Amino acid sequence: MQIRLDQLATHLQKNLRPLYTLWGDEPLLAQEAGDAIRAAARAAGHSERQVHVVSGAHFNWSALLGAAQAMSLFADKQLIEIRIPSGKPGKEGSEALQRYCEMLSDDVVTVLQLPRLDRQQQASAWFSALDAAGVTIRIDAIERKALPQWIAQRLALQGQRVLAGEAGQQTLAFFADRVEGNLLAAHQEIQKLGLLYPAGELSFEQIEAAVLNVARYDVFKLGEAVLAGQVARALRMLDGLQAEGEAAVLVHWTLSEDIRALKRARDALAAGKPLPMALREARVWGAKERLFERALPLVSDNALAQLLHAAQVCDGLVKGLKHPDWPLDPWEGLKRLALMTLQCTAAARVSATVPRFALTAS
Length: 362
Known about the structure:
By secondary structure, the protein is α/β, with parallel strands linked by helices. The chain has 3 domains: about 140 residues, Rossmann fold (3-Layer(aba) Sandwich), CATH 3.40.50.300; about 70 residues, Helicase, Ruva Protein, domain 3; about 140 residues, Zinc Finger, Delta Prime, domain 3. The protein is about 55% helix and about 10% strand. It is built from 18 helices and 8 strands. The strands form 2 sheets. The chain has a 6-stranded parallel sheet, with helices on both faces. The protein has a two-stranded parallel ribbon with strand order 7-8. Strand 3, helix 3 and strand 4 form a beta-alpha-beta unit. The protein is globular.
């Protein structure tokens, strides 16, 4: 049975199931979900706790199965945690997990923690058994556009709030910019505000003085920012990735792969294929589908040809080759490539903010 993360608290108030599977890549939310289940289990008398970490191919699955069946000498009920950091239990582990699901009892509450799973893993026999036998909770990262509201909700939990209206929205946007991609740091900064200031309204100056710049940028989110026409955010992410020591080659691959996908999708549309099929053939999935739907009508064949040539030049820059019309610094080259893509795919109101030299560079 699948439930949303925001439904977990209500679910735990009503009943406690023998098996919970938490999967996703957001450490803070996974930790909080695990803490909520552990607290409910302790309240229900599951006072003995065991933790099993599956690492490598030599994990003793038989011992885990035996632990689930063994009654404690000191407590009637147990809490067993199984952590599989790789998300891949292997053949033996797959069979063991399926057997484990067949022997669940009310005397044992099990919490299984997994990273983000791909489609093949979600369709596996072992994950299907976990989903059928217990409660499965997918833990997604907080998207950038939802982060200000998340921050406001967390501040409200400790009795604090920002100013009403546009001023408050700007304050939350500032806060989100400083903690983007680092939810644990956001949580810590919110807690710090609770210690520094009393309950009530917080001014921009108070938040600015307290909140550090602890953003952690995801290279794969850069392409989404570019396709969405978010000029300031894209440039800020490039600066952040460079400061964090990200490889310029990986950043270039991310940008150029989106350009190639735009070309593949546009060619498919020109061949008379419907948009959903064109996106599938271009290997565009998830959140980027809507961004591509928006960008494709705005980009011309001539502009795409220039972008492909620019991506080729930039490929040389990040590998140490020079080009007379491009900056020597590969990161400056990446910035130019991002600006060219922004200018090419953004609506008129956004492209007006992008330097016009970009598309003429070659």
